[in-house]
Q: What sequence folds into this?
């Protein structure tokens, strides 16, 4: 290449321009410092399902029982997790275009697990839905991370127009004075929380049995975690999915060892039997599932894998 005065000047000018652009014209984008809103949508037939992130609960491997801790830690490590388990708390919206149902509510203003929860209403708003647009709140069960978001810090109902729907066995347990009086002391505060959350909806509560509770939405008793813990089958056309509530508390552990108990299971053996029954059903039908405590947004499938199971997260849905 022939170097002359003209090429040398052009090269120098280009270098100077590049230096100027790199140092002043294009400043780096500022750090955001906040995460994106926690909502995500999928379709089930004509129904739109929106997952909402309430936040995370600071759990750990010590919350699981019925297996050697070292084995559980090994399962977690294989999944890229540690024995410290910040665990998603998710809620879901079922929208038919005519009716809008909220499945569980998160922890709301209750700070029993610290400040990392209570974002369901904010993420509902980010998804373009207001509390007064909710036609019904459906509870899988009445533990505080599912029901306390029914009310604000003042104890008043947040969902002014919503019917409240839960299984009759769930309401029958938490609202029964005999069950309260015979409960262990450590469980009694849970009765108080459930009653405070349910009370403002007393006049508009429907106690459901197994079966269809709304068009395309079926409630199925899946007891063990609580006496009335229920799952929801959502169906439209040929499509269906199962919202399994607290059937799964950690996808890696419960797929590998479905008989492992969880600290808040009221009947761990019954909860494990329900879990196996559900896993067998969804794996046989290749059915999409979503769960409260699978990592947000939680959609995926369960497959039989030898003598245990495997959870496979669903691919991102690029279109609706």
A:
């Amino acid at each position: 290449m022939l170097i002359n005065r003209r090429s040398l000047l052009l090269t120098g000018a280009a270098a100077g321009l590049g230096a100027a652009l790199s140092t002043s014209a294009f400043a780096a984008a500022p750090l955001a410092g906040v995460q994106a809103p926690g909502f995500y949508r999928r379709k089930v037939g004509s129904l739109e399902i929106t997952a909402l992130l309430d936040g995370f609960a600071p759990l750990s491997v010590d919350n699981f029982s019925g297996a050697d801790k070292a084995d559980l830690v090994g399962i977690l490590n294989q999944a890229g997790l540690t024995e410290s388990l910040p665990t998603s708390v998710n809620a879901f919206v079922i929208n038919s275009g005519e009716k809008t149902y909220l499945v569980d509510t998160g922890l709301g203003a209750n700070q029993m697990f610290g400040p990392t929860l209570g974002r369901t209403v904010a993420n509902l708003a980010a998804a373009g839905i207001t509390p007064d647009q909710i036609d019904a709140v459906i509870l899988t069960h009445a533990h505080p991370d599912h029901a306390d978001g029914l009310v604000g810090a003042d104890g008043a109902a947040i969902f002014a127009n919503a019917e409240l729907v839960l299984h009759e066995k769930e309401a029958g347990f938490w609202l029964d004075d005999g069950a309260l009086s015979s409960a262990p002391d450590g469980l009694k505060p849970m009765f108080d929380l459930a009653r405070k959350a349910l009370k403002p909806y007393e006049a508009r509560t429907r106690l459901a049995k197994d079966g269809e509770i709304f068009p395309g939405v079926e409630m199925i008793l899946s007891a063990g975690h609580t006496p009335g813990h229920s799952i929801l089958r959502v169906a439209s056309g040929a499509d269906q999915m199962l919202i399994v509530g607290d059937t799964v508390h950690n996808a890696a552990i419960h797929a590998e060892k479905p008989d492992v108990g969880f600290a808040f299971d009221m009947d761990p053996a019954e909860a494990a039997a329900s879990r196996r029954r559900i896993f067998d059903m969804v794996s046989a039908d290749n059915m999409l599932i979503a769960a409260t405590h699978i990592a947000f947004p939680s959609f995926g499938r369960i497959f039989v894998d030898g003598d245990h199971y495997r959870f496979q997260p669903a691919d991102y849905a690029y279109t609706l």
Observations:
- The mean pLDDT is 93.
- The longest strand covers residues 47-60.
- The CA atoms of residues 104 and 139 lie 5 Å apart.
